[in-house]
Amino acid sequence: MKNKDLIYLDTYVLQQDMRIRMPKSILENLDIVKGKSKFKVYYDKINSQLILRVDEDNKDK
Questions:
Q1: Which among 7, 50, 55, 60 could disulfide-bond with 38, CB atoms 3.0 to 4.6 Å apart, if both were Cys?
Q2: Model pTM greater than 0.85?
């Protein structure tokens, strides 16, 4: 993935309980539902990045 493929949405602080608030704009840009959609979390150690991907396996469950 190249930087030109990334779309900046917002910056949030990691909460004490390890939560990160998601920008509301993801609801407009991704086919997800609050409280139902799941994400797979990946760590790119070369670029020191976390990557969230919609879990397509659980999309309609």
A1: 55
A2: no
